């Protein structure tokens, strides 16, 4: 099996490889093989914890100390989330991993499952031990079929080696883990939509509360975390929570995978310490392509506010740094735009995405995203009116906060932030029927 | 209605779920059926539902909700190209124009010989390799250029 269809283009020497640590150790065609992972001390933490009967509360404390926050975008403290799972429950508890990356610009979890799947499996097994979960599912984005098969193969390897299944290491701890796949729905990255999808239903989010910790897969207590979050766990337990926190900055423990795409010379994933200056990360990605200059950055995927160059150049890449600068870290999905980018056309594409992907459950999102898209399309078609800009702002503000899940807010954010920061471009387009940037 | 090989694959998927939750496997079962048949007719969807012991409407709801299921014939090779932001910034439009003129079809159309169908996709989560496309929901091709597209199409002839 040729795993490296896509060459690893990023320079590893300046990175802090935690979730992708197999890359540092191996030039192998399959860096994520069980043999390579074991050579790095893989599964030693699981064995230590299970055979040593380490207390669940001690593990949760260590995860809290690490400062690890949910890597899927919401940034909720992982240790705290784990403490919400009921300790005693008469029945099966579930563990779910969210590898359904569909937020444009996000492609980090794909590299974990294809280059270091066993660290994810070990992280999930440790979480299962800690939370008393008997069964786990890793829900993988539908479009990355080849990577799904790599993960299925890794699961088979782990079962064969006795790291998954019944009575692990001769103890009473048993954990079965399965891979399931999506089939094309952005909304399934929302944890309750993902749970519906695992159950074989349309991916429409559930009303919360109840939260998955009390009512999750098949109505049973369920813990849902992102791929990168679970994959960080073995490292945290090997080196200690404090060591992980110390790699990052206040309120943002550890390193983080940043997916850099768009107008850079070397797009790709960069695992670097939280708090890295934006300029340093941009430099690692080869800088702006074709010698051009930076115009804007969406720092964490389109559900985070776009930032003009002036706002992001002095920023550090961590939760507090980006929030102070008027946006947020999201999933660390940095989309870089150079001076030739027409913000009106870019917003049109993003609006179409949210319109297309709205699950249709809540009226403000189902109808609102369509209205927003049609108005922006009207502007791009040369039939915009100046009052459209206020209408767009008003509409978006009325979607935000009025839906069951966060997709409504996500759809509103690009509209509000693009118009806020690049209003003259929108006004020019409406007045002249063409782009101020491209002249077309 | 489905081959034994496909039914075996569905049985494997069923092992992932509790015995009383056979519906869990419906997404996989529809994917397996589509891979065998090329697309999902109402009859195929009803067969899958029946096999799993769930109402046909429950399977149809899933088939219509997720965009990688094809409810109409899509030819031998379905080419789905991402045009979302990261791909757009790296000139996916040029690739789209090239595919459309080379194949002589627009989005959601099948070539007269029934060989190719072109679809516009949403983000596939591989934006570092933009622009990109996948074929028949399985093979991902990244860092596309016009020359690379010609090479890929050449291999599919």
- Could you tell me the strand content of chain A as a percent range? 5-15%
**Shape estimate of chain A:** globular
Structure annotation, total helices of chain A? 18
Spans of chain B with pLDDT under 50 lasting ≥5 residues? none
Q: List the secondary-structure elements of chain B in sequence, H or E.
A: HHHHEHHEEEH
Distance between the terminal alpha carbons of chain B, to the nearest Å? 29 Å
What's the N-to-C terminus distance of chain A? Answer: 46 Å
The coarse overall form of chain B would be elongated
- Number of E-state strands of chain A: 11
Q: Tell me the major beta sheet of chain B.
A: 4 strands, mixed
Number of helices of chain B: 7
* Oligomerization category of the chains in this entry: heterodimer
> What fraction strand of chain B?
5-15%
Instruction: Bin the helical content of chain A.
Output: 40-55%
Q: Looking across the biggest beta sheet of chain B, what order are the strands in?
A: 2-1-3-4
Radius of gyration of chain A: 22 Å
From the alpha carbons, calculate the radius of gyration of chain B and give it in angstroms.
17 Å
- Integer average pLDDT of chain B: 97
Average pLDDT, all residues of chain A: 95
- Number-wise, the strands of chain B total 4
How does this model look, in words?
The complex is a heterodimer of chains A (440) and B (157). With 440 residues, chain A is an alpha/beta fold. In chain A, 43% of the residues lie in helices and 12% in strands. Chain A contains 18 helices and 11 strands. Chain A has helices at 22-25, 34-39, 44-51, 56-66, 78-83, 108-115, 117-131, 145-160, 191-198, 227-239, 241-247, 278-284, 309-312, 319-324, 343-357, 363-380, 387-399, 407-432, and strands at 94-99, 135-140, 176-181, 222-226, 255-262, 268-273, 276-277, 294-298, 307-308, 316-317, 333-338. In chain A, the strands form 3 sheets. Chain A has a 5-stranded mixed sheet with strand order 6-5-11-8-9, with helices on both faces. In chain A, α7 (117-131) packs across α10 (227-239) and α16 (363-380) runs antiparallel to α17 (387-399). The longest helix of chain A is centred in the C-terminal third of the chain and has 26 residues, at 407-432. Chain A is globular, with a radius of gyration of 22 Å. The N and C termini of chain A lie far apart (46 Å). The model of chain A has no long low-confidence stretch (mean pLDDT 95). With 157 residues, chain B is α+β, with helices and mostly antiparallel strands. Helices cover 46% and strands 11% of the residues of chain B. Chain B contains 7 helices and 4 strands; from the N terminus they run ααααβααβββα. Chain B has helices at 4-14, 26-37, 42-52, 56-65, 85-89, 92-103, 146-156; strands at residues 77-82, 116-121, 133-135, 139-141. In chain B, β3 and β4 (139-141) form a beta hairpin. Chain B starts with a helix and ends with a helix. At the A-B interface, β3, β5, β11 and α15 of A face α2, α4 and α5 of B.
């Amino acid at each position: 099996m040729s795993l490296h269809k896509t060459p690893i283009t990023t320079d590893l020497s300046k990175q802090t490889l935690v979730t992708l640590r197999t890359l540092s150790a191996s030039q192998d065609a399959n860096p994520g093989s069980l043999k390579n992972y074991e050579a790095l001390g893989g599964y030693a933490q699981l064995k230590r914890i299970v055979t040593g009967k380490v207390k669940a509360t001690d593990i949760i404390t260590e995860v809290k100390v690490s400062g690890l926050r949910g890597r899927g975008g919401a940034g909720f403290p992982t240790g705290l989330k784990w403490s919400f799972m009921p300790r005693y429950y008469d029945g099966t508890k579930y563990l779910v991993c969210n590898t359904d990356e569909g937020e444009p610009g996000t492609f980090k979890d794909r590299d974990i499952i294809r280059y270091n799947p066993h660290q994810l499996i070990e992280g999930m097994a440790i979480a299962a031990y800690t939370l008393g979960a008997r069964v786990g599912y890793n829900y993988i984005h539908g479009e990355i079929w080849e990577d799904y098969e790599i993960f299925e193969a890794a699961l088979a390897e782990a079962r064969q080696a006795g790291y998954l299944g019944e009575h692990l290491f001769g103890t009473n701890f048993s954990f079965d883990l399965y891979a399931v796949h999506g089939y094309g729905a952005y909304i399934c990255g929302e944890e309750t939509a993902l749970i519906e999808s695992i159950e074989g239903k349309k991916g429409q989010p559930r009303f919360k509360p109840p939260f998955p910790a009390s009512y999750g897969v098949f109505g049973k207590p369920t813990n849902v975390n992102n791929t990168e979050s679970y994959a960080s766990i073995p490292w945290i337990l090997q080196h200690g929570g404090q060591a992980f926190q110390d790699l990052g900055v206040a309120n943002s423990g550890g390193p983080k995978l940043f997916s850099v795409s768009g107008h850079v010379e070397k797009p790709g994933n960069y695992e670097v310490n939280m708090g890295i200056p934006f300029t340093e990360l941009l430099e690692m990605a080869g800088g702006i392509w074709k010698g051009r200059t930076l115009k804007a950055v969406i720092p964490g995927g389109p559900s985070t506010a776009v930032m003009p160059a002036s706002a992001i150049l002095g920023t550090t890449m961590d939760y507090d740094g980006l929030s102070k600068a008027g946006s947020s870290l999201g999933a660390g999905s940095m989309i870089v735009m150079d001076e030739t980018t027409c913000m009106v056309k870019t917003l049109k594409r993003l609006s179409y995405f949210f319109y297309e992907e709205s699950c249709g459950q809540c009226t403000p999102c189902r109808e609102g995203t369509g209205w927003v898209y049609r108005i922006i399309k009207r502007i791009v078609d040369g039939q915009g009116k100046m009052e459209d800009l206020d209408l767009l702002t008003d509409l978006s503000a009325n979607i935000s906060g009025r839906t069951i899940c966060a997709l409504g807010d996500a759809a509103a954010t690009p509209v509000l932030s693009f118009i806020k920061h690049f209003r003259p471009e929108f006004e020019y387009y409406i007045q002249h029927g063409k782009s101020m940037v491209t002249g077309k | 209605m489905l081959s034994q090989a496909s039914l075996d694959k569905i049985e494997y998927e069923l092992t992932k779920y509790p015995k009383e939750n056979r519906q869990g496997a419906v997404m996989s079962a529809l994917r397996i059926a589509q891979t065998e048949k090329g697309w999902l007719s109402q009859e195929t969807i009803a067969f899958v539902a029946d096999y799993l012991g769930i109402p046909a409407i429950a399977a149809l709801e899933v088939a219509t909700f997720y965009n990688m299921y094809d409810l109409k014939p899509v030819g031998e090779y379905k080419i789905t190209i991402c045009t979302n932001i990261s791909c757009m910034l790296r000139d996916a439009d040029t690739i789209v124009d090239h595919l459309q003129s080379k194949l002589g079809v627009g989005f959601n159309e099948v070539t007269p010989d029934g060989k190719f169908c072109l679809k516009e996709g949403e983000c596939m989560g591989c934006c570092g390799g933009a622009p990109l496309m996948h074929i028949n929901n399985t093979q991902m091709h990244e860092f596309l250029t016009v020359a690379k597209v010609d090479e890929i199409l050449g291999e599919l002839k």
